[in-house]
Write a structure and sequence with these properties.
The protein contains 13 helices and 16 strands. Helix 3 crosses helix 6.
Length: about 375
């Protein structure tokens, strides 16, 4: 029986997918085969030797030690696109909130409590301080055209905005899903130069940290409005605050409040509500559960952040699944060990993703995992 540990509350529509005859799902398992997690911090967590996979019910995996997982032979999944519509809707709300100064206006209206019959006059007298531009006809720049970025682009276009997008890793599927009229540019600086509003939808890593900084802000239009519903670390807070003070940036809305931006004039800080919808939580839970089940039972990899997508049907006696470093001659060593042990390889599938690879072998005959585990560069072996 497979043991599944949940580190956060996972929607029942996801956990109910685990067959009770094959799985035990609890929130206190000490040695799980799989883990389901949302936002719990796993960076310092020690993993039991039998842990095979972690499924993040969400897109970002900065709460998971992905590199260490690869070294320990653990497949890490996420659920791209499952919360895309929820985030898209909040981004559209963000466009309106930064344009029309809606949060500040609401806060100001609350101060009129107790003014009695004078409220109407005070509203008419004070409303001009919250005037702001319409979004129709303005240019929205999108940095990152993944599942969320594409939805934002298409919706903004329908709202009458001009849309300019940039993504150095634009997938064929994403490109096909973009509505005609969305302009895809080859350089991020083209987005900076054209956009009245800039929204960030790129992953956070060492290369994207501080994408919005003093240098990039200087290339943007005066009065630009910046939206960050991706990750807080994509924006250099000190540089952003300085640009707000100077009037270079008109407004900044973020779904990732930090002590340095909270309360700053021109900043709207939302408490990470992007995926906080029942629909999104259900979608993420279902996708994460299906990924775990397919991997644990069949060895197939879909939507892993550290391993390539790979699948192979089991038609012989056993399916050998190997996580290993992407180095020359290693697959030859694996097949050599299996052949030396008397196994006959009927089919093989092997894919790589940067420094790591995943190999599946459909084998007739018995296979001893210990001999494969001894190969330098192999970090995980399973026989199904």
């Amino acid at each position: 029986m497979y043991k599944i540990l949940t580190l956060n509350k996972i929607a029942a529509c996801g956990t109910d997918l685990f067959d009770k005859a094959k799985y035990a799902v609890t929130d206190n398992e000490a040695a799980p085969d799989g883990i389901m997690v949302r936002s719990a911090n796993m960076l310092e967590q020690e993993f039991a030797p039998n842990l095979k996979a972690i499924a993040r019910a969400g897109a970002g995996v900065n709460n998971i030690p992905v590199d260490r997982c690869s070294e320990e032979g653990i497949c890490v999944f996420n659920t791209p696109g499952a919360n895309a519509n929820a985030v898209k809707e909040l981004v559209i709300a963000g466009l309106l909130m930064t344009s029309r100064k809606i949060p500040a206006a609401i806060d100001w209206a609350k101060t009129l409590k107790g003014q009695g019959a004078e409220v109407g006059k005070l509203v008419e007298k004070g409303k001009s301080q919250f005037a702001g531009p319409e979004i129709m006809g303005k240019t929205l720049g999108i940095v990152g055209l993944g599942a969320i970025g594409v939805k934002v682009a298409n919706t903004a276009l329908s709202l009458g905005m001009k849309v300019v997008g940039y993504d150095p890793f634009l997938s064929v599927n994403a490109a096909l899903n973009l509505k005609p009229g969305v302009e895809v540019v080859k350089a991020i600086t083209d987005v900076y130069a054209a956009a009245d509003y800039i929204t960030l939808h790129l992953p956070y890593n060492k290369d994207t940290k501080g994408t919005v900084n003093a240098e990039s802000i200087a290339k943007m239009k005066d009065g630009v409005r910046i939206l960050n519903f991706a990750r807080g670390e994509l924006v250099n807070s000190a540089d952003l605050i300085a640009a707000l003070s100077a009037g270079k940036v008109a407004a900044y809305i973020t779904d990732f409040p930090s002590d340095d931006v909270i309360g700053v004039d021109g900043v709207v800080a939302i408490p990470h509500l992007g995926a906080s919808t029942p629909e999104s939580e259900d979608n993420c839970a279902v996708m994460a559960a299906k990924e775990l089940i397919d991997y644990l039972e069949h060895g197939n990899v879909t939507n892993s952040v550290n391993l390539p997508d790979c699948e192979l049907a089991k038609t012989a006696d056993c399916l050998v699944c190997v996580i290993h470093k992407n180095v020359p001659a290693l697959i030859t060593q694996i097949t050599g060990v299996i052949s030396a042990g008397g196994g006959n390889i009927e089919n093989i599938a092997s894919k790589s993703k940067k420094d790591w690879a995943y190999t599946m072998l459909d084998v007739t005959g018995a296979v001893t995992t210990s001999d494969i585990e001894k190969i330098e560069g192999v970090t995980g072996v399973r026989v199904l």
